[in-house]
Write a structure and sequence with these properties.
Blueprint (H helix, E strand, L loop, with lengths): L1 E6 L7 E7 L8 E7 L8 E3 L12 E5 L3 E6 L2 E7 L15 E6 L64 H14 E4 L21
Antiparallel strand pairs: 1-2, 1-8, 2-3, 3-4, 4-9, 5-6, 6-7
Length: 206
């Protein structure tokens, strides 16, 4: 599984995942997204890509600010996770995070629900990244200036309230991707949650 992701401190484990679940050769990969807040994940959404992610480089984006988390592929919005603290729900905005990229063995669950196992004869496995760019507010090593990064100003443009909403064309893209390419949404998995669905599932998706 290849995964660029954003992660906070291990103790509270905030994390934003953008992962590719592997498969046997010739079978499609799956784009896997998730959000951990205070150590709790279980917010997975998965998509079948409309392209071959191994054939060429693509642009994968995670936009994270105090209002919203947005995942995108080549500028197309594929998922939104909104801040619903006003409804009493937790959001990943209490700590700084760092970007990590890795490749790891998730064949106990990631590949066709664990049916396809890694063929270690094909090792070593590699992933390649180019043109990485981050527009971020950098905190000090001790992390004592976190609040500075929540104040809207020219350097922290991304925390302006205007960057908490999607444009009409982005909403159109999001709904198209959900309709045509989504293969799993935790908000529709009633069996998994015994019919008691996460509260955000009854709120607007964007």
């Amino acid at each position: 599984m290849t995964s660029p992701f954003v992660q906070g401190t291990p103790n509270s484990h905030d994390e934003i995942d953008f992962e590719f679940l592997g498969n046997v050769s010739g079978q499609p990969n799956i784009i896997h997204t998730n959000v951990f807040v205070l150590g709790n994940g279980s917010r997975e959404q998965q998509f079948k890509p409309w392209f071959d992610p191994a054939a060429d480089f693509h642009s994968y984006g995670i936009f994270w600010n105090p209002y919203v988390i947005v995942w995108s592929v080549d500028g197309t919005v594929i998922r939104v996770f909104r801040n619903w603290e006003s409804k009493g729900l937790p959001f990943a905005n209490k700590q700084p995070m760092r970007v990590l990229c890795s490749i790891w063995n998730g064949d106990y669950w990631a590949t066709e629900n664990g049916q396809v196992k890694i063929n270690w004869a094909n090792a070593p496995f590699t992933s390649h990244y180019i043109n990485y760019r981050a527009d971020v507010c950098v905190i000090s090593k001790g992390g004592n200036d976190v609040e500075r990064c929540t104040i809207p100003n020219r350097n922290n443009w991304f925390v302006e309230p205007a960057y908490g909403t999607l444009r009409a064309d982005q909403i159109k893209d999001l709904m198209r991707v959900r309709r045509d390419y989504m293969v799993y949404d935790y908000c529709t998995d009633t069996k998994r949650f015994n019919g008691i669905m996460p509260p955000e599932c009854s709120l607007p998706i964007y």
